[in-house]
Design goal:
Blueprint: E1 13-17, H1 45-57, E2 62-66, H2 76-89, E3 94-99, H3 104-113, E4 118-122, H4 128-135, H5 140-152, E5 156-163, H6 172-181, E6 185-190, H7 201-204, H8 208-215, E7 221-224, E8 233-237, E9 243-247, E10 260-263, E11 268-270, E12 278-280, H9 282-287, H10 292-302, H11 326-329
Parallel strand pairs: 1-2, 1-10, 2-3, 3-4, 4-5, 5-6, 6-9
Antiparallel strand pairs: 7-8, 8-9, 10-11, 11-12
Helix pairs in contact: 1-2, 3-5
The chain binds S-adenosylmethionine.
Residues 22, 26, 28-29, 66-67, 69, 98-100, 122, 160, 162, 189, 191-192, 194, 326-327, 330-331 line the site of S-adenosylmethionine.
Length: 331
């Protein structure tokens, strides 16, 4: 039953974007006047549950809900509660989510009650004005209250920060000290050329090799084999006692160890974050009450999972590598 792609990689990790909508408009992620999907195009929560269940039956062990902002999807906790039965049965090892934190104070306790153990919170700055500028619509105080609520509920929180030149590069050492001081690991991410945005990505792009070299002037970083199932490579920071992760899709692609596929809220399966090719799972899902058609469509899609992405950010390449925004497939 296991899903093995043409390059021998076993697919055991599913990321599910439950909505393309978000209550923030981060400048590197979206344009300000984004057009979102009409509600009628979305799979129902029951259909998303059915699709996830087929993937779990086919060997998915880790499932991450993302978006858009997953916690703004109406009744999202119903889906989380439903999916948690696969944790209880042991079929699923981990159910988690990536969130901007804005709704966490409402949902943290229930997430923990559903068996979610750890979550990723995206946070690019600790400065309230800069936070408002980068997210356009977000308020730092709300996210901080959300992080407090998550920790109080016993959720392990990891912070994700997109490293942005001349925006947060100088602040990242302080963010790392703050995160580690509160028992949270921090992962920094290179910005990826996905979708048209209002800004020029060449101005924003910061290769993490440069960030690492600069951090090494202040901190002792030791490579460690620690893994959380995703693409981050970690170092231990001697001075803070915490871990720092690097996600480097631009400077060092990690495709050879890719174990992931991504499902969107319309039932479209992307076999690679950085390629346009996709498979429609909604049609086979709706064509039959049984799961055979959709299972066959998944096998066919896994059979054409590409070797990897080829993201480029430079002055000569003005178009994004893929036309869809990150908010379609989630982080
Ligand atoms: N709303 C949730 C959140 O904020 O985490 C989940 C979706 S968001 C698209 C997932 C992650 O993708 C966030 O950490 C965000 O910063 C990151 N992201 C968005 N656009 C990106 C880009 N072009 N390159 C790299 N990371 C990006």
């Amino acid at each position: 039953m296991n899903m093995i792609d043409p390059f021998g990689r076993t697919i055991s990790y599913l990321r599910v974007s439950v909505t393309d909508r978000c209550d923030f408009r981060c400048t590197y992620c979206m344009a300000e006047d984004m057009a979102f999907l009409p509600k009628k195009d979305l799979l129902s929560l029951e259909e998303l549950d059915r699709l996830c269940t087929v993937f779990i039956e086919k060997g998915v062990k880790r499932l991450r809900l993302t978006g858009g902002e997953p916690l703004v999807r109406k009744n999202i906790m119903h889906l989380v509660r439903q999916l948690s039965r696969h944790l209880d049965s042991g079929a699923l090892e981990e159910l988690t989510l990536t969130t901007n934190g804005s709704q966490l104070s409402r949902f943290a306790a229930e997430l923990a009650d559903c068996g979610v153990k750890r979550i990723n919170v995206s946070l690019d700055t600790l400065d309230a004005d800069k936070f408002h500028a980068i997210t356009r619509w977000g308020h730092l105080g709300k996210v901080m209250t959300g992080i407090d609520a998550a920790q109080a509920a016993g959720l392990k929180v990891k912070l994700n920060a997109v490293a942005l030149k001349d925006f947060n590069d100088a602040e990242l050492p302080e963010m790392m000290r703050w995160a580690h001081g509160r028992g949270m690991d921090l992962t920094v991410i290179e910005t990826m050329p996905m979708g048209e945005i209002d800004a020029d990505r060449t101005d924003q792009y910061l290769p993490l090799s440069l960030l690492r070299a600069s951090l090494e002037r202040q901190f002792t970083l030791t490579d460690i084999p620690f893994k959380t199932g995703g693409p981050a490579r970690y170092v231990q920071v001697a001075e803070t006692g915490g871990k720092l992760g690097f996600i480097t899709p631009m400077t060092h692609n990690f495709c050879e160890s890719c174990n992931r596929v991504r499902l969107t809220c319309t039932g479209t399966l992307y076999m690679c974050l950085g390629q346009e090719d996709a498979a429609d799972l909604r049609t086979p899902l709706r064509a039959s009450e049984g799961n055979e058609l959709v299972a066959d469509a998944i096998d066919e899609a896994i059979g054409r999972k590409p070797k990897g992405h080829d993201f480029i950010i430079d002055r000569r390449t003005s178009r994004p590598s893929v036309s869809r925004h990150m908010s379609v497939t989630g982080g």
